[in-house]
Amino acid sequence: MYDTEFLDIPALRSVRGSVRLPGSKSISNRVLLLAALCEGRTVVHDLLDSDDTRVMLDALRALGCGVQVDGSRATIDGLGNRPRQPQAELFLGNAGTAMRPLTAALAVLGGDYQLRGIPRMHERPIGDLVDALRALGCTIDYLGTPGYPPLRIGQPAVRLDQPIGVRGDVSSQFLTALLLALPLAASQPGRRDVVIEVVGELISRPYVEITLQLLARFGVQVQREGWSRFTIPQGSRYRSPGDIHVEADASSASYFIAAGAISEPGRGPNGLKIEGVGEQSIQGDIRFVDAARAMGAEIDSGPNWLQVRRGAWPLKAIDLDCNHIPDAAMTLAAMALYADGPSTLRNIASWRVKETDRIAAMATELRKLGAQVEEGTDFIRVTPPDSTTGWRAASLHTYDDHRMAMCGSLAAFNPARLPVRIQDPRCVGKTFPDYFETLFAIAEPSTPVPVLCVDGPTASGKGTLAAAVAHRLGYHYLDSGALYRLTGLAARQAQLEPEPVNEAEIAALARQLPVQFRADRVWLAGEEVTEQIRSEAAGMDASRVSALPSVREALLNLQHSFARLPGLVADGRDMGTQIFPFAPLKVFLTADAAQRADRRHKQLISKGISANIDSLRADLAARDARDSSRSVAPLQPAQDALLLDNSQLSVEESVDRVLGWWQARQPF
Ligand SMILES: O=C(O)C1=C[C@@H](OP(=O)(O)O)[C@@H](O)[C@H](O)C1
Ligand SMILES: C=C(OP(=O)(O)O)C(=O)O
Fold this sequence. Notes:
Shape: elongated
CATH topology of the largest domain: UDP-n-acetylglucosamine1-carboxyvinyl-transferase, Chain
Number of domains: 3
Radius of gyration: 29 Å
Strand order of the largest sheet: 27-31-26-32-33
Bound molecules: shikimate-3-phosphate, phosphoenolpyruvate
Structural class: alpha/beta
CATH superfamily of the largest domain: Enolpyruvate transferase domain
Number of helices: 22
CATH architecture of the largest domain: Alpha-beta prism
């Protein structure tokens, strides 16, 4: 997951290959709650791991459930035959699928519970649900603004003699919450059927369908008359299915369906395969497939998979009632940027009370990209930018809304080949923490991946600077010096002295170097060698192998392969001059020799390695002389490099300076 301040996505051309998507949020959180309300054990497979499911799992733990999570499998021991904590304070983030159903379940069970969330959750309505529960005899107090969380729940005196009315026109989650909670009341001896009547038009109906399907999996068959009357038969009681699988998230699939539909046709005919969800999904958002087809996408489907490719181009504008796909409809607004005319998405008033006011947010951000947007209380109309002159590079605000971020990424496929900046990319953690990584793994850029080079002499602090800059930008990091150190180590392990006589053999090793960089750790052939390659001896070997021309050439391809989406910060001695000569920013870092010797001395001492400052200074001078006078790729600044003398700068100051230069080159 990217937890950077922003993420710059280079212009993208296409997606290809296959993606496997994480589990459905709506199914995951329903199944977790249902498992918690059962007797005995339920094993949930392919559970989503995200902010929304984490708050649900934490809440269930706090209530006394047995919860064990092992990768994507969760084992839940339900409260049916375990003592429930009578008192708890639950933090539910911004998860509507946790706040609304837990409110209902705990209000029916009774106790002393406080339910809170992030500030936005305290602006998301819950009054219709609270009214319904109060009419049923539940005790619920508002701890802040009436009609909104936070809430305090007390002991109920449940009366089931009359149908329970609930409004359905603000959120379907209120009805879902009652449907999940009331089997607890229906199971009491002597109780009668529980009847729920929806007042007003029910929105987002397919989500209620998911609820009914999952209730059935847990042994409760609800009878429904149209979308207005639901009966939970007397004596209904939860029974764990034992094992249950979660489908991949159909709303998450919408971003990849859209990417497939707007992707330039590649060399192969097959487009993008999406695994984990198919057209038979129980999730209503799968009907996004129909809308995408109406816009021109070609989509095939089989059991638990979809295959998408571009069909009509430009896409065909649509005018659609989107009430049945409230979440995936946002993706249509992004697809509308590529349509042949204005597209109108109707009946989406609920967008205004979700993670943010999504109609207003979408209108503001699409306008930044060059679209004309009209908004009304319950619709949005998007007129795409002119495909040749209308697009603008934009820095998109995401309003702590995962879907704004994921939709925004689709703007990177613009024909003007402009990058797009996504602010606060971390917000995708609500439902799809690795969204951007997943996208980058299958996307092809339409312009070269941006590379930022940091070259400089030994102990100038370039590794620290480059790694910090990479971290701030969310870019990959190449420590090219480590490649030479690794080659030196590989040579030693193969009993080869790093000498010209062994050049061909060492070059062969370098070509196949089984190296992996993960965070700030380095592996060679599966063995972690982070510390080993940092020794002074390994540094000397590195300098010696790096003077061998065929070794340098062998490592060239390897180094190029590090330039992957979304970008690369490469540190070394010849990044800007030899390896990435077209890099848009090259920094040549210097510091006076005394400073560098002093830093290296402190570094070694802090690792418990004894060192003599005078001999360090002499070694540095010898290496500088050798590096700058070697015939192949001597250590020199590229002509277009910016010089940075960091003798008097802190690491943060150097990082800010480089980021300032980088930012000055961006179009945002
Ligand atoms: O029940 C559910 O799982 C959901 C219902 C929908 O909300 P509304 O019913 O408020 O539209 C949807 O937007 C939300 O992401 C998940
Ligand atoms: C509206 C959404 O979430 P929630 O489940 O919090 O309502 C969403 O995921 O788009």
